[in-house]
Amino acid sequence: MANEVLTTNIKHLLGSLVAQGVHEFVVSPGSRTTPFALLLAEMQHVRDDVRVTVDVDERSAAFFALGMAKTMHQPVALLATSGTATANYLPAMMEAHVSHVPLIALTTDRPAELQAIGAPQTVNQTNLYGDNIKDFGAVEMQDAHADVTRYIDYRVQQMVVTAVTAPAGPVQINLPLRKPLMPDLGATWPAVVAQHIITGQTRADWQTVQGIAALLRDKRAMVLSGPDEMTWDATQFERLADHFKLPILADVLSGVRPSDHAINGIDALLEADVLADDLVPEVVIRFGGTPVSARVVAWLRAKDVQVIQVGQNAAGHDHSRQAEITVAVDEMGLIADLLAEPGSDSVAFLARWQTVKTTLTKTIASTDMTEVALPLAMTSLPTDSQLFVANSMPIRDMDNYFMPTRTIRVMANRGANGIDGTVSTAFGMAMTGKPTTFLTGDLTLFHDMNGLMMAHQAQLDMTIVVVNNQGGGIFSFLPQAAAKAFFEPMFGTPLPFEIADVAKLYHADYELVADQARLRELLAQPAQGLRLLEVKSNREANVAEHDALLAKLREAFHG
Amino acid sequence: MANEVLTTNIKHLLGSLVAQGVHEFVVSPGSRTTPFALLLAEMQHVRDDVRVTVDVDERSAAFFALGMAKTMHQPVALLATSGTATANYLPAMMEAHVSHVPLIALTTDRPAELQAIGAPQTVNQTNLYGDNIKDFGAVEMQDAHADVTRYIDYRVQQMVVTAVTAPAGPVQINLPLRKPLMPDLGATWPAVVAQHIITGQTRADWQTVQGIAALLRDKRAMVLSGPDEMTWDATQFERLADHFKLPILADVLSGVRPSDHAINGIDALLEADVLADDLVPEVVIRFGGTPVSARVVAWLRAKDVQVIQVGQNAAGHDHSRQAEITVAVDEMGLIADLLAEPGSDSVAFLARWQTVKTTLTKTIASTDMTEVALPLAMTSLPTDSQLFVANSMPIRDMDNYFMPTRTIRVMANRGANGIDGTVSTAFGMAMTGKPTTFLTGDLTLFHDMNGLMMAHQAQLDMTIVVVNNQGGGIFSFLPQAAAKAFFEPMFGTPLPFEIADVAKLYHADYELVADQARLRELLAQPAQGLRLLEVKSNREANVAEHDALLAKLREAFHG
């Protein structure tokens, strides 16, 4: 046993992670990670509830883990070597912190005696992610003291519990290691006793439940379900809406679409200014994160609607500052409580909103415009398939125009809203094994092109629909589009390469898709391996098409 | 004047940066950056000492700026939009902090009234880079109070001075902005008065100078010149060595090669164990950062050599803990002082080392082995050309075997030693307009493949020599190579694509180079645009070839 202490302590650390529900590990190779990587490989070999995936680019790896954690509803561990490797996790840690995803960053480090004296690849990794994590801990791996092993078991399990407890979020475990780093392979694995930490659930008191039920029953009330990717059972929203006869302003990331009560397109309807006064609610019960639609929160404030905000993750997260009542309790618990109260039979308000939805659906169905038509085509995806959507224009169009008739899981990195790491997040989502599609613009694809590597590395199937508008499409909607002299070099940023060549580099199937019918046909069939479907667009034409659609909406509602 | 306060304050900020010597700006487009980006474009248009370069991937952008700052010896400013975009700067900030490079990160932010209440793309950007910067400041851009503009002028100039003062390092200026963001274009630019801040220079007292001079004159003394990319005039080392007849253990990143006094290959000589006892110095005067050679510092300790460590950046940076005397003064100042003292005529020790060098040079000249031969081929680069070297194997081989006969500027990211961001750093180096070559392995190329975009974006010429050993070559030299079952998936990480396809994607010239003669021929001619030269290698064969070379060295010295 050449390296017994290190080997035993690492096994306790890994065993503690598994004991608290960490079954997925994403490793970026390096020298300092050696003992962890080898023992992870051995652990994967000896037990079947552990999976290790290698992603060489740490920025990509962290977003890949983010996609897994969000989709699988479980904590995912990351392993990086010392130095700038660990810094590459920050963008995804930031997103995980804002969207409450339990990532466990294991950052190997140089030992204490090499800190701050010019040793190579040695940086200060203590509290590296600052305010973007819930907890930081350093665990000693090479101390033979009897307390150390027990501390590892206790502290590591505690940190995983911290990460998954609402509001969930990432943690960092820093691991200083001195050479020699080779672990003893083939030795016995110690049993790690799982701590049973019951964190409980925050529920509303009965007066609050009764008060909210009365408002939902007696007022013109709506649900606003914002993004939530980790904690909800979306069918409960349908039951709540049915019980009180409520329309649901269902964010595309709420998981609540499809539903008879779900309304889409609120941002377009508000932009077109086609909503009659009798569609304004008196009360809105709001769940989840900040909606994709910027206009809907502004509208609630402008109309002085009474907003009740519900949820533990999103408590206080109302940048319209409109919510009068914040109910910081478990959402599913509150819905269960509300369902036990008397409901409502009055369907008039709901019916008016359903008519709006019908008119909207009819109007957009008649369009064959490129970017707007993409959300319609996405409804052809198979039942139970998954769809990851890039930020900027794709998520906005999807929020307005995507209303599937079957269950299609839609996700985005809608916390910090970065354009970084999206390819990797989509591939992380694909680790469930379900058919997965990624809808993106060309610029966002470029930002995380390294993520495409995971198709080969983890043997994943994926369809990527690339809307190629030659650069940053969203800027064409902003005031700077008027500054013509400086616009193209500073904002347009056209990419100098062909999507077909990207496909060739990564051995992907490729097709330039010219019409919506063909796109629907392709999307109905899940990809085998990696498939890139390019849809060409034009930034200026796209602005004109969006404007034309708004005009059609005005005509449909008022004409 | 729709947005006069914002426009005026931004002009003061930009003017203050220029007043303190910031002439290069690297911009990653985004919505929140709009007023800065447009006014930067206007500033570039109206004055000829400002250059703005766009790099859409913020991780790449920061390393690109790092490469510029290191090569041009001046501070470089970065501009990012709010959210995870800013987090992507961390890897390069970390490297800049360790290698003392003055990067000025301008991070635009959401306004204070949107913090922590769930507004989209809003994260805590205060002190985002933690201990990896020298100073953090937040500057208000939309306050019309008379003190604010003066504060901007003062504070921003002060922060640039902080960044460039030894030990130099990065700073972050956070810029909260509320809408509307469109600046007034075409208005007058205010004059910004440059503060003249004389930071002075730390010099040694005369007793110290005389004491060191006596040691160099009377003992078997050597110079160890470690990496330094920012502050040195390398010709002074030659003068110092000539004055006291000193051999220089010249790190490949010291800038001291070529020189009659410079010795290369110290790591290989120590590994082969061919150095006779009479080559061991009594005294070493050490300059610069931690040497590429890990063995040289261990050797000095094992032989109990008296080490005098000199420098402001590297004071206390001796992870061998061998230095008895640390002289934390300006290096060039100390050399000037030493040159004023009496020198030495005794050339015996220097001559013995020069014989070692001759034997080494002859031995390696007879090799035609792939990876080892690359440093020899690199000596064919044109005079005054630049060479950026990736970490891991390439920098180690270069440190051992590269001894040019003309001035070739060699750089690497040898602070935190990451494999991230190297392509971008090389392109930043190419911004000088001098012929630039980048020597890298395939895995490092992959990690920052997005950096290749800058060939088109900034119209840069670049030759990239890719040693394709299908993954992480260095791991084959480490103990884990013995763990065959787990090695390939966990460490080998072969890339699933062809370098020729990378070249096609980025419209680069491509050639698979089979022999050293052809490589020399190609390297002698600077690239027009982007050129990828692939040299195929094999990880296991490379280990064997390194071993064979060590055997040849033993034979040459002892045989």
TrEMBL record, chains A, B:
Read off the HAMAP family from this record: MenD
Which purpose does this protein serve, as stated in its record?
A: Catalyzes the thiamine diphosphate-dependent decarboxylation of 2-oxoglutarate and the subsequent addition of the resulting succinic semialdehyde-thiamine pyrophosphate anion to isochorismate to yield 2-succinyl-5-enolpyruvyl-6-hydroxy-3-cyclohexene-1-carboxylate (SEPHCHC).
Q: What is this protein called?
A: 2-succinyl-5-enolpyruvyl-6-hydroxy-3-cyclohexene-1-carboxylate synthase
> Which residue ranges does the record assign to the Menaquinone biosynthesis protein MenD middle domain?
214-389
Swiss-Prot/TrEMBL keywords: Magnesium, Manganese, Menaquinone biosynthesis, Metal-binding, Thiamine pyrophosphate, Transferase
The coenzyme or cofactor needed here is: Mg(2+); Mn(2+); thiamine diphosphate
Query: What organism does the UniProt record list as the source?
Result: Weissella cibaria
Keyword Manganese listed? The answer is yes
Q: How does it assemble?
A: Homodimer.
